[in-house]
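Sequence in, structure out.
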Amino acid sequence: MNDIKQVLTTAFKAEPPVRIDRAQLIKNGRRRLLRRRMATTGGTVLAAVVVGTTVFVGVGQPEQLQPGAPPPTPPTPSTSSSRPTTSPSPRPPLSAGVAQQFTKVLAESRIVPAELALRAPTESGRALQFEPERNHYEAAADLVDRHGNEGTLYVMVADSRRNDARPTCAAPNTCVQREFGGRSVQLTTVPFSSRGEVLLIAHTRLPNGTQVYAMTSNVSTNAVEQHGKAKSPPTTPHHLVTLDQLGQIVGLAELKL
C-alpha cells in the first residue's frame, strides 16, 4: 500500500501547473457566438467549424448528423482502358500574408461607410482585419453610427469544396440573384429571431471553388454575448450596411483563393 501511495504522489507532483489564458477564452467564446449566428442561416461551413457534428438547417433548428452508410464495395478493376479521374488540386496553406492582402483590399474599396466606427468583436481581435481560421479567412466588426446604433459585419473567404456556406432560400428567407463585379451573387434576407433580429447576406461561389460570404445584422456581437443567441433585441432600427454594399464586398475581384 505504501508503494502505491508513493507512486501516485510522485506522478501528481510531476504534473505541470494548469495555465488558463483568460483573454484567449474570451476571444474564443465571442468568436463562437459570432459563428453560430452565421451557421443558422443554412450554410454548413461555419457550423462545422463551431460544433463539429451538428449541421444547422433552415433557421435555428439543429439537426444531428446520422451515421453514414457502410462504404460501397470497391469496383473490380477493369481490363479495358479508362480515363483517369482527377481530383481537385489542393489549396495552398492559409497564410498571414493573404489575410493582410484581403484586409487591404476591403479597406481600400471604401464600401463600408466611412462615418461608421468599427469595433473589434473580440478583446484581442482587430476590427475588419482578416485572419486565417482553420480552412477559411474571416474578418468581423461591430459597426456603430453617430447616433450610437450598433450592428455587426462579418466577411469570409473559404473553399466551397469543403462546405457550402450559401444560405437556404426556403421560407421565411427571401433571395434575389444579382451581379457584382462580374460575379453572380445571391442576396438573402433572413428573419433570424422572434425578437426582431434580421440578417442580410451576400454569397457567391467562383468557378475555382472559392466562396465569398458577407453578412450584416441589426444586432451587435456585444449584445449577443450579453443576451444569448436569437434572444437579443435589435441594437439599431436599420441595418448599417445594405444588401447592395454586401454584394459589392463579395464582388471584389481580389477576394479569392
